Amino acid sequence: MTTRYAKIAMTLALAAFAFLTVFNNVTDYSSNFNFVHHVLSMDTTFPDNAARYRAIDQAWMWHAAYWLIIFGEALTAGLLGYGAVKLWQARRAEALVFARAKGWTIAGLTVGFFVWFFGFMVVGGEWFLMWQSEIWNGQDAAFRFYMAILGVLIFLNQPDANPD
């Protein structure tokens, strides 16, 4: 049972993280919007790089991208929260039932991985060359987030014994 409780607790911790990320992005919209604006406009990347043609200069697209990020974070929080409830409900069930209850959590972890790995590392980091910016580089933070998500995903998917 300890392992099951740990899986539930870790799911809840990541749900809380994703929820607080959404809360902060909505209640302090301009701070993180500035991040998205500078990454997408590529205005702090190396001035002579040949990829600056990728820059987006339309404000509506910066807002759209930011709301897409917020939506992904909110979806992560919701799926993980619901997943934790389903895991809690199945905590005393047979191993197969508990394994089936992991589906919502797996979905939430997958969405979170896409937000922080695909969104920040692939799109932001490589397409918009965020790594070139000394000021607007969120790759280290994104790395911490998606590695925590992957760690929980791996732990969650370890087989569970039947409860005593």
From TrEMBL:
Pfam families registered for this protein in UniProt: DUF2165
The record's section on InterPro entries has: DUF2165_transmembrane
Q: Which keywords does the record carry?
A: Membrane, Transmembrane, Transmembrane helix
Parts of the chain that traverse the membrane: 65-85, 106-129, 141-157
Name listed for the protein in its UniProt record? Photosystem I reaction center protein subunit XI
